């Protein structure tokens, strides 16, 4: 363990620290990676992010490397296979939402040319840099996540409430919520 100061939330486990140090808050423009975070954040609803991180590789395998075109065509047999997969979160509503969201994701790609072009409009195509001193200051949602959630829901996406959208925006680097004394704050 090094002596670098990190955000409060990632100090308990190595898996959280690695995620924090290498991915969290880094601006993402790759559609497949954005789709992965959309799926994982939906599965995280009501659970800890640590639970998702521990199962992330299982999700990657179970959900065909987060390929939206494949997921959009899942049939009942595949849904049942996922329901029996102990390596992921076995919640039928969330599994069905992954399929629905894949279909809607592809529709957005077609309309905007990429999901990235669509999703980054909610922050005016730039990272919103916050200035939090304490972990407790970080909100669960914002006007930006409210707008994103409203539009995604209107388009038929599932499990995209404002809190889930805010977590997605943090993960995808649309919002920099690293604490100001965290070594990653200025790096991302």
Describe this protein's structure.
- The longest helix has 21 residues, at 92-112.
- This protein has one domain: Hypothetical protein, domain 2 (Endonuclease III, domain 1, Orthogonal Bundle), CATH 1.10.340.30.
- The protein has a two-stranded parallel sheet.
- The protein has helices at residues 14-22, 31-44, 49-62, 68-71, 76-83, 92-112, 115-119, 143-154, 162-171; strands at 128-129, 175-176.
- The chain is built from nine helices and two strands; from the N terminus they run αααααααβααβ.
- The model has no long low-confidence stretch (mean pLDDT 96).
- It is mainly alpha-helical and 188 residues long.
Fold topology:
Blueprint: H1 14-22, H2 31-44, H3 49-62, H4 68-71, H5 76-83, H6 92-112, H7 115-119, E1 128-129, H8 143-154, H9 162-171, E2 175-176
Parallel strand pairs: 1-2
Helix pairs in contact: 2-3, 2-6, 2-9, 8-9
Give a short synopsis of this structure.
The chain has 188 residues and is an all-alpha fold.
Key terms for this structure?
mainly alpha; two-stranded parallel sheet; single chain; Endonuclease III, domain 1; 188 residues; 52% helix
Strand content: under 5%
Radius of gyration: 16 Å
Helix content: 40-55%
User: What name goes with the CATH superfamily?
Assistant: Hypothetical protein, domain 2
**Unreliable stretches, pLDDT < 50, 5 or more residues?**
none
Sum up the overall morphology in one term. globular
Structural class: mainly alpha
CATH topology heading:
Endonuclease III, domain 1
- Strand line-up of the largest beta sheet: 1-2
Shape-level CATH architecture: Orthogonal Bundle
